[in-house]
Amino acid sequence: MADRWYDRELKCGCLISSDGGGGVIPCSYPEVSTEDELQKCDDAWKEWQKTEDYDKFKQECWEKNQ
Predict the structure, then answer these.
(1) What kind and span of H or E run contains 51?
(2) N or C: which end of the chain has fewer CB within 10 A?
(3) For residue 22, what are the domain limits?
(4) pLDDT tens for residues 23-63?
């Protein structure tokens, strides 16, 4: 099994990986998260998408997954 590196951490504590599809933990597993946690993740994700770091992350995803 391959290791996954997490490049970013959102304010809610979720980890995001730019390799192999950009996994998000734990908000990608709603069955183990509360509604409050999911809302925090959603808010953090939307906030992050408005930053320059998000644009940089998208470029990293493209480069790593070519």
Answers:
(1) none
(2) N
(3) 8-64
(4) 666 666 666 678 888 888 889 989 999 999 999 998 988 88
